[in-house]
Amino acid sequence: MPILTLECPQCSHVFQGLVLEGTRMPEVWVCSNCGSREAHLLPDEEPVTHPWEEEGHGPGLCPCCN
Ligand SMILES: [Zn+2]
Q1: What CATH fold (topology level) applies to the domain 1-49?
Q2: pTM assigned to the model
Q3: Helix, strand, or coil here: 3?
Q4: 31 C-alpha to ligand 1 centroid (Å)
């Protein structure tokens, strides 16, 4: 499951967005810092492995699968 890195042009906040398996990529990313809806993907960032994957990733085990 990829985690995407996003950057907010309003406040320069860099944060990560999770695309849930089986769901479409959101068309709008909301900045978790200032609430701007103009956050965009950082083009140079490769999707990284889910950080919880090695520690029991799944329903009931991590926030993303509940
Ligand atoms: Zn922002």
Answers
A1: Rubrerythrin, domain 2 (2.20.28)
A2: 0.57
A3: strand
A4: 5
